[in-house]
Every structure is written in C-alpha cells, then in structure tokens.
Amino acid sequence: MQIDLLQEARRQAEICNACRYCEGYCSVFPALQAERAFSDGDLTQLANLCHNCRGCYYACQYTAPHEFELNLPQALADVRQDSWEEFAFPRAAGKAFQKNGLAIVLATVLGFALLFWAARALAAAGGEGFYAVLSHNAMVAIFMPAFLFPLFSIAIGLRRYWQTVGGAPVRLSHLSGAIGSVANMRNLKGGHGDGCNFEDEDRFTHSRRYAHQAIMYGFLLCFASTSVATLMHYLLDMPAPYGLFSAPKILGLSGGVLLVLGCSKMVWLKLRSDKSLGATNAFGGEIAFTGLLGFVGLSGLLLYAAGGTGWMPGLLVIHLGAVLAFFLLTPFTKMAHGFYRMAALVRDAQRHETV
Questions:
Q1: Please, what's the b/e burial string for 205-240 (b: 16 or more CB within 10 A of its CB; e: otherwise)?
Q2: DSSP alpha helix (H) spans, the chain
Q3: How many domains does the chain have?
Q4: Which of 12, 47, 282, 319 fits a disulfide with 79 by CB distance 3.0 to 4.6 angstroms?
Q5: What is the dihedral of CA 178, 182, 186, 187, to 10 degrees?
Q6: What are residue 52's phi and psi, to 5 degrees?
Q7: What is the residue range of 275's domain?
C-alpha cells in the first residue's frame, strides 16, 4: 500500500481526533476517536467505513486555505481505493481497471458480445426463446466459471483485508448489525438524519442513499430472478421461456428498472459533485463501472421488450456480453466496495463489543 497515502491519512486523522467536531456524523468518527494512534490497519478500516458523504469536509474549519488543509473524504478515499487495488486478486488487474476503466469495459463488452455472436453462428441451439440463439448448456458452461471466479477472487481479497485490520472470528451478532446498516444505508442518512450534501454543500438530501438502495436492491432482485429460474429449471422441470407474470420475469423486470434508475441517478450525482473530495484517480473507473451495471439492467429490459422479434438475437448477445464483463470485472471495480464495506461494518461491530 502506498506509504504517502497512509501518512497523509494518518496526519489528518490525528487532527480530527484532536478536534472531534464531527463526532456524530457517521461510523468513522466514533471508530477514529477510539484510537490514540493509527496503524496502517486502523487507517484501512476507517477508509472502508467511510461512505464519502462529505459532510465532515463541508463542516470542517480546517480545510484549505487553513494551514492544516484537511480533506478527510479524499484522504480516506485514496487509502480505500489503494486498499482495493492492493487486496485484489490478481493485483495487476485491480490497478489496470482504475487506470483504464472505460476502455476495459467497452472492450470486454464488445469482445464478449462478438464471441457470443460467433458461437451463435457456429452452432444451432434448437431451443425456444433465448435458447434458440444460444443453448442452455452453452450458457451454463460459460457463466458458471464467470460466476465462480469473482467469488474466489473476492474471498482472497477479503481474507487479506481481514488480516490487515486485525479482524476477529465473526459471530452472528456482528453480522446482524452490519446487515442492518447496509440494508437501510444508515451511514448515508447524515449526522442529523437529513441526508448528506454529497453533490451540493448547502443542500442535504437522501438522493445518494436512495440511489445506492435502488442499485443494491435492483441487483439482488436480478440475482433472485436468475436463482429462481435455476431452481424452476432443475428442480421443478420447468425450463424457460417463462411468462410475463412468472416469478423470474417479475423479479427480473423490477430489478432491471431499479438498476437503470439507481445507476442513472448515481452517475448524475457523481458528475455534479466535487471530484477533489473523492479518490483522485478513480473517477473514470467508478463512472465506467456504474455505467456498465446500468447497461446490464437496460439491455435486459430491452431484451424483454424485444421478445420474439428480429431484434432479439442481437440484443441477447450484447446483454450476455455485458453480464459476462460485469461478473469477470467485479473484483476489480467499485462493485467490490460492497464486500469490503460489509467487512468494515462487521469489524466495527466487533469494536463496539470490546468497548
């Protein structure tokens, strides 16, 4: 991990610890004020607890032009981003995505779409609906490894993170508190419950919290749609295609709508926000990932609308290319932050238990 980023974060954390004006703003400050000195692991934990709402920056009396020049959101964002790159497996892939995120997303989506189109042209599927374009067995053979690889990669990253922050064995009580915080995005409500001023210093809203929730629940609904369809196919002998009012379609449609709305709102908020308060080198990668996730939802909705029309085969290979790119890039994109944020909240729950 870059020493200069840690040193700057340590300098700012020590000043914040002496001031304590932002004590009730979010989970970061109680955890920060529980320490007298900050190890590299402490700073990594604080960085991953931070949701970058920026309320502390706008309330701080020591920001530039003060000689202290505090910018804690940026300092923690830089450490956080660097930790994700350092913990990623393989590490080189994590660093490459942050430098060339948009190019990598476009190349992988188009490349995988062309491969799916070639597979369609070379082998007749002979099924119904989407399976008339690509067989069920071919989809499983392609997507099963693509689903397992990010799980394996993220598991390695989380193990590295847990060792760095000195995590203890996890109990159910630790998980329940962390899941509750994630479910309602408690740390995005602001210190007084009025929301955060992420995109505008003088305007407190819950917009960013709602956008995060739409993305999270949209993704979970899409995942539930795939899971239910898998159970119906293998356990109930009910292969696709499914009707509009079937469980897979209802879950998938609602999830796709939430993904598109949430990702569109998140991109809009990021473009309006002050880029100097986030990770200095991660803006392009964050926009690329958010755009990819939103495109997965949009292409899925368009695919539903295309039905049995002549547009369906082309839309299917583009959608499958986007989904495959999303899964394979997950450990190296902003998507990984959900796993690290969850781990940080679990570690924070352990800290509360020992206080």
A1: bbbbbbbbbbbbbbbebbebbbebbeebbeeeeeeb
A2: 3-19, 28-33, 40-49, 55-59, 72-87, 91-99, 101-122, 136-164, 172-184, 207-234, 247-272, 283-306, 312-329, 336-354
A3: 1
A4: 47
A5: 90
A6: 55, 40
A7: 89-354
| Rounded-to-integer distance, Cα 259 and Cα 213, Å | 10
Quick one: which of 151, 123, 149 has its CA closest to 138?
123
Q: How many CA atoms lie within 13 A of 274 on its CB side?
A: 15
- Do you find a cis peptide bond into 239, omega within 30 degrees of 0? no
- Residues present in the chain in total: 355
- Name 196's bridge partners: 205
Give the separation between CA 331 and CA 327, rounded to whole angstroms: 8
Residue 42 lies in a domain: no
The end-to-end CA distance of the chain, in Å, is 29
* Domain presence at residue 104: yes
Give CA–CA dist 263/257, Å, rounded: 10
Alpha-carbon span 144 to 285, nearest angstrom: 26
Q: For residues 135 and 323, what is the distance between their CA atoms, to the nearest angstrom?
A: 17
Amino acid code (one letter) for 248 = P
pTM, 2 dp: 0.89
User: Residue 47 pLDDT more than 90?
Assistant: yes
The CA distance from 120 to 109, in Å, is 16
Amino acid identity, residue 32?
L
- Domain contains 58: no
At 1-43, the pLDDT tens digits run 677 999 999 999 999 999 989 887 888 999 998 888 999 999 9
The residue among 28, 19, 151 whose CA lies nearest residue 79 is: 28
Distance separating alpha carbons of residues 275 and 282, to the nearest angstrom: 10
Cα separation, 271 vs 283, in Å, equals: 9
From the DSSP assignment, how many helices (H) and strands (E) are in the chain?
14, 0
- Is 95 part of a structural domain of the chain? yes
Computed on alpha carbons and rounded to an integer, the radius of gyration of the chain in Å comes to 22
Does residue 123 surpass a pLDDT of 60?
Answer: no
One-letter amino acid at 11 equals R
